[in-house]
Structure formats: structure tokens, C-alpha cells
Design a protein that fits this description.
The structure holds two protein chains of two kinds.
Chain A lengths: L4 E3 L6 E3 L7 E3 L5 E6 L2 E7 L15 E4 L2 E13 L2 E10 L4 E7 L2 E7 L17 E4 L2 E18 L11 E8 L7 E6 L6 E8 L16
Antiparallel strand pairs in A: 1-2, 3-4, 4-5, 6-7, 7-8, 7-12, 8-9, 9-10, 10-15, 11-12, 12-13, 13-14, 14-15
Chain B lengths: L6 E4 L6 E4 L7 E3 L6 E3 L7 E3 L16 E4 L2 E15 L2 E12 L3 E8 L2 E7 L5 E5 L2 E6 L2 E20 L8 E9 L2 E7 L4 E9 L1 H7 L19 H30 L3 E5 L3 E3 L5 H4 L1 E2 L3 E3 L4 E9 L4 E11 L5 E15 L2 E7 L1 E9 L2 E12 L5 E9 L5 H30 L8 H7 L1
Antiparallel strand pairs in B: 1-2, 3-4, 3-13, 4-5, 6-7, 7-8, 7-13, 8-9, 9-10, 10-16, 11-12, 12-13, 13-14, 14-15, 15-16, 17-27, 18-27, 19-26, 20-26, 21-25, 21-27, 22-23, 22-26, 23-24
Helix pairs in contact in B: 2-4
Classes of the chains: A mainly beta, B alpha+beta.
Chain lengths: 215, 434
């Protein structure tokens, strides 16, 4: 699984991988969702056009965060009854990964929590409760039931069409480090925690941002 | 290739064209023609709320206006008028939603000509109590609770990243640390904190290229910066410096003044009853040497329960320059039920501020009313005599600006808090009841 390019089984276009280990990608031409099977790509579905976005991030946007360079390789668009947000999948130069979330212009970068902690079951979650994740206390600020509104680019998993799942947004508990946040994702059988920091776009020294007419 | 910045839609209610500037960020958009609030995320734009505002408002910054505020480019994409009803009166304010795809959202608020530049905080600051009042700390700065009221949405235009509706209500609490203000808005669903910075209207006008002059701000706003307090402080410090400088000058004068006697008469006598003209005389001439300085003329008359009046003219023999002045010496004394009393003095000092060097004489015309047949008097003229009066006047005048600015600062603080939940008219008892 190291080939940098492959042909789309749906339309024949050549697909260049930004991340050689991607397990799933979306053909940028025909929007076929393609899953890697050894050297070949298998079409597992189609995505409809993504809604026009005002996000300045796009596939191929590069930047730096915590002394490591990154490139945006994939995106999941989430939607819920009162809003939506983008989760951009980042691969870093040192071989790590991270998610850059982009909601109403608020940008946060998070990585999977490194320390295993007992996370609350979805049914036990309540706004206001606090939990220690990676040695920081976080307080549940909101619970959101969201679904995929679309995917693009390369992703580390083959799930591309998902039912509604639960997300818990957590703020850093107490004063001080108020730009820290955490998310618990209940999409899979066992919840997964991510810990992150809100940033200003400029702090990431971004390159290859999307050019938006008139701005 | 650059991505389009707007999407064009059609209002399902009236068919008018609608431009969406924040694209996927918009959750609701208001049709500018019919005022319907539409679900921006629904491809069919279903109507969330038909036009039901009781009153139409016109934004001072038209929607779609772009400007550069504090170095960043922003476009006005949404506008709402909200209000709070306190003691039966509704106070309205405007909120402008600004957007930049690279920066996100920002707000401007306007009340009675006072503007704030507002950013939503990503996490809640710490709420505590201090001196019986709620306070909030953010980045080490303490914000004092100012007011809590129910804010209701009265009118909307443009697009919003939330589902806006006329009639939306939130409990809004303001905490101030001028020129900043922290605002907490609480609804059943969520609590949002935002940080506002008082921004002069002229700055908004130039940022968005608005025509004319901004309307005059009325009253003192909750987080209006307290220029007078800091100015009064720095002026008071400067005043202390003045005092020190003047004290030093006075000290140097006291040490260096020559107090040279340039002329003195012996004891003179005159008969008070004689005609005034016959009493007039001129002194021998005397010389003033050195720099131009003050000249003190001391008149000492041995009046007892009477007065003497001396009309003087100091004449420069070379130039003819004449300094005319009159001095009165009076002294009364006696005894009554309270004991001995006296009034006046037998000695009088007259000071001519700046007299140049030269040859001078004095013309003296004395006049008196005393119970004695003769009056004894003496005249002494000294140059370069130190005096405090001009310095005291200078200190008093220099004290005026800091005092006036201090009064304004005090007035501004009381005007600010008069509008709060802690106004003195409400009294402390009212606060406890809340």
C-alpha cells in the first residue's frame, strides 16, 4: 500500500495520493468513494456534491503546528439540526495525524488522547460533568448528535456513510488554559477521546489556503 | 481559480433574490424583501418564521458593507435589533454580524451612539463573588457585574450562523472592566460568553467608510473608557512636580534676594489738617543698580485710631517713566466687653513688580485723619525683595485642571454606575432583594 497513484475504477481518472497509507479516498472527478484493496481501488459508493463552503481550508492546505509540518489530506462534513462543521484530516511530516475542526470560523486542532481513561458511556453523559483526559480536567459543554453530510479526500478508515452519532464537546475546566478543548466521539462501539487547542488560522502559518473571490 | 464567495438563492415566500455570504456557515437568512426568516441549510429554504417584527429598523452600516477594522477586513452579513425592558421602558441596541472567511465571525454592538467590538469566547471564564457582587476573571483581569436583563430580539436582517427568530430571548449579564466588557448570554440550550472592547464611533465610521459624522454618543456607557480617571491621576502627578519646581524657585529666591535698601527717610512729621497740596514733596534722588527687579516701598506711620493716605509717584529721572500708586495706613484699637481689640497696621508694604535700573525720586502727597496734631512717618525703599504671591497664584491656577478633571472622572463613574443594577437610587436594599 505505498503506491502514490492509482486509477479510479469508476471513471478511469488518475488519483494522486497525498498520503500513501490512506485506506479510503474520494475521486475528485466523479465523487466515487474508493477503498484500497491491496494495489487496486474498489468503489464502495458515491458522495453527492458537498455544499459550497466558506472555509479557507482545502485539501492540500499545508501548515505548521507544534514544530511539525502538516498537510490536509481529507475532510468529513458533519451536520446536525442547529449547524454543522468540517473535520479536516491532517497527516504530519513526522508521520502522525491530527484533526482540524472548523466550525463558524473557530479552528481547533486535536489529536487522539494518549492515555487510556475510562470514558463515560453515551447514556451517562451530562452537560456540566467533568472528566480528566490526558491529565487535564474537562467539563462537558454540549452534546451534539451529528451525521456525515459528505466526505472528500483521504481518510484513515473506510467508513464513509454513517448514521447519526453522538459527540461530546468539552471545555477546559476552570480558568487558565481556556483554549484547550476535548471531544468524545461515540461513533464506534467504544468512545474515543480527542484533546486539542483552539488556534487562530495565522498561528498555523498556512499555505495553499483556498482563495475566495473578493477576499 | 478562486472559489465563489456568495451563493444566490430565491426566497420561497416572495421570489426575491437572496445572496448568501457565509455559505455553509449560515443557518438562517432573512429575505430582504419580505422579511421572512428562512432555513439557510434547507435547499428549499423553508420558512422558519414569517415577518413579524413590530417595527422596521435600518442598519447604520448597510449589509454587504466591507471595511477594515483594527487591521482586519470584515463584511457586514447580519443585523439584529435587540432590546431589554427595565422598569417598563424598552432600551434597544443594534448588533452587526461581521464575517471574514479567513477569520470567522465578529460582532459590533451599538447603543445610544456607543460602539463595542465583540468576539465570542471559546470557553467560559471564572465567575466568583467579590464584595457581595458577582465578578468574572479573564486573563487576570477582574470584571465587575454591571447589569442582568432579558434581551429580546426585535428585528433581524441578513444571515446568521444560528437559527435566529424575532422574539428570541436570552438572559444577558454584563461585567465591566473599561474599556472591556464580558457578556454572558444564557438560553435553555447554551451559555455564550463574549468579550467586547469599547470602540469610538469615529473609528467605526472610518473603518466602513460611512458618510457624514457618527451620531453623538449619549451618556456614559458601561465599559466606556475612563480617560478622566487616568488623566486626573497623571495631572495630579504633574502638579506635584510643579509644586516641587516652584518650591525650589521660591527657596532660591529666599536665599539669593538682595533686599538692598536704596532709599530711606528719617522720621518725618506733618500736620494732618494742612491743605493737601502744601504737604506734597519730592525725595532726593536715589539710584537703582543691577537687573530689573521688584521694588518695595514701606510706609510706616504712627497712626492712633486714624488713617493716613500716601499718594506716591516713583519717577525715573532719565526717562520720565512714572509709577503712581496710593497706600493707606490705618490703625484702630480699644477695649470692649470682649477685651482689647485692634484693627489694621501701622506699616504698609507696596510692591512694584519690575522696575529697571536708573535714577529715581519719589513724589509723596500725604493726607491723614488722626486725633493727634502731628503724624510721624517713615518711608523705606528696598529693591529685590522676595515675594510669594505670584507663586501662590500660579500654584492655585495650576491646581485647577487636575481638580476639574478629577471632578469629571468622579462624575463619569457615578454616571456609569447609575445605569447599572447597583445605582445609588436603587439602594443596597434593592440589590439584596434580587
Amino acid at each position: 500500500m505505498t503506491a502514490r497513484s492509482a486509477a479510479c475504477p469508476n471513471c478511469g481518472a488518475t488519483i494522486e495520493f497525498r498520503w500513501s497509507s490512506a485506506v479510503q479516498t474520494v475521486c475528485p472527478y466523479c465523487k466515487a468513494v474508493l477503498v484500497r484493496r491491496d494495489l487496486d481501488l474498489e468503489k464502495v459508493g458515491m458522495v453527492s456534491d458537498l455544499p459550497p463552503t466558506s472555509s479557507p481550508i482545502q485539501l492540500g492546505t499545508e501548515g505548521r503546528w507544534q514544530q511539525d509540518g502538516f498537510v490536509v489530506v481529507g475532510r468529513i462534513v458533519y451536520r446536525y439540526d442547529r449547524g454543522g462543521w468540517n473535520e479536516w484530516y491532517l497527516r504530519t511530516m513526522r508521520g502522525g495525524d491530527a484533526w482540524l475542526s472548523d466550525a463558524q470560523g473557530d479552528i481547533g486542532i486535536s489529536t487522539r488522547a494518549t492515555k487510556a481513561v475510562a470514558l463515560p458511556a453515551a447514556n451517562d453523559l451530562k452537560v456540566g460533568q467533568s472528566y480528566a483526559i490526558d491529565d487535564t480536567r474537562f467539563r462537558v459543554a454540549s452534546l451534539t448528535r451529528a451525521r456525515y453530510a459528505g466526505v472528500e479526500g483521504e481518510l484513515p478508515f473506510t467508513t464513509w456513510d454513517r448514521d447519526e452519532s453522538l459527540f461530546a464537546d468539552l471545555d477546559a475546566d476552570g480558568s487558565g488554559d481556556t483554549l484547550r478543548f476535548a471531544t468524545i466521539d461515540y461513533s464506534d462501539e467504544s468512545p474515543v477521546a480527542y484533546v486539542g487547542t483552539y488556534v487562530e488560522l495565522d498561528q498555523l502559518a498556512p499555505k495553499n489556503l483556498r482563495r475566495i473571490e473578493g477576499w | 481559480m478562486s472559489a465563489p464567495a456568495v451563493a444566490s438563492l430565491t426566497c420561497p415566500q416572495c421570489g426575491s433574490a437572496i445572496e448568501l455570504r457565509t455559505l455553509d456557515q449560515a443557518l438562517s437568512v432573512v429575505c430582504a424583501s419580505c422579511g421572512s426568516i428562512l432555513d439557510a441549510r434547507d435547499p428549499n429554504l423553508h420558512v422558519l418564521q414569517e415577518f413579524k417584527a413590530r417595527q422596521k429598523f435600518t442598519p447604520q452600516i448597510p449589509l454587504g458593507t466591507r471595511g477594515t477594522l483594527k487591521g482586519e477586513k470584515w463584511e457586514v452579513v447580519g443585523y439584529q435589533v435587540r432590546g431589554a425592558t427595565i422598569d417598563g421602558a424598552t432600551y434597544y441596541w443594534e448588533e452587526y454580524l461581521l464575517f471574514n472567511p479567513y477569520k470567522g465571525f465578529r460582532y459590533l454592538t451599538q447603543y445610544d451612539g456607543h460602539w463595542n467590538d465583540v468576539q465570542v469566547l471559546k470557553a467560559a471564564p471564572d465567575e466568583t463573588m467579590s464584595g457581595g457582587r458577582p465578578v468574572v476573571t479573564l486573563h487576570g483581569e477582574t470584571f465587575k457585574h454591571f447589569q442582568t436583563a432579558t434581551a429580546e430580539t426585535y428585528f433581524v436582517l441578513g444571515e446568521f450562523p444560528w437559527q435566529v427568530r424575532v422574539g428570541d430571548r436570552a438572559t444577558a449579564s454584563d461585567f465591566v472592566a473599561p474599556p472591556r466588557m464580558l457578556s454572558k448570554e444564557k438560553t435553555d440550550e447554551e451559555t455564550t460568553w463574549s468579550l467586547g472592547t469599547y470602540t469610538p464611533a469615529a473609528q467605526i465610521w472610518s473603518a466602513f467608510g460611512l458618510p457624514g459624522e457618527p451620531p453623538h454618543a449619549r451618556g456614559v456607557y458601561a465599559n466606556q473608557p475612563d480617560e478622566f480617571v487616568s488623566r486626573a491621576g497623571s495631572m495630579a502627578k504633574r502638579y506635584l512636580l510643579f509644586v516641587a519646581v516652584i518650591a525650589a524657585i521660591v527657596f532660591i529666591r529666599l536665599v539669593t534676594a538682595s533686599r538692598e535698601t536704596v532709599f530711606a527717610t528719617n522720621a518725618q512729621f506733618f500736620r494732618p489738617g494742612a491743605p493737601a497740596d502744601s504737604l506734597a514733596f519730592v525725595t532726593p534722588s536715589f539710584t537703582l543698580r543691577g537687573r530689573t527687579t521688584d521694588l518695595e516701598v514701606t510706609t510706616e506711620a504712627q497712626v492712633d485710631n486714624g488713617w493716613a493716605y500716601f499718594e506716591y509717584a516713583l519717577v525715573n529721572e532719565q526717562t520720565g517713566t512714572t509709577y503712581e500708586f496710593g497706600r493707606e495706613v490705618s490703625y484702630y484699637y480699644g477695649r470692649d466687653e470682649d477685651g482689647n481689640w485692634s484693627e489694621g497696621s501701622r506699616r504698609d508694604h507696596a510692591l512694584l513688580p519690575s522696575v529697571p535700573a536708573g535714577q529715581y525720586f519719589l513724589r509723596v502727597a500725604p493726607e491723614a485723619q488722626v486725633p493727634t496734631p502731628f503724624l510721624e512717618y517713615r518711608i523705606v525703599v528696598r529693591r529685590d525683595v522676595p515675594t510669594y504671591t505670584p507663586y501662590l497664584i500660579a500654584l492655585a491656577l495650576l491646581a485647577l485642571p487636575p481638580i476639574l478633571v478629577g471632578l469629571r472622572a468622579w462624575g463619569m463613574e457615578s454616571a456609569r454606575w447609575k445605569e447599572s443594577d447597583y445605582s445609588s437610587s436603587g439602594g443596597d436594599d434593592d440589590d439584596d432583594d434580587e
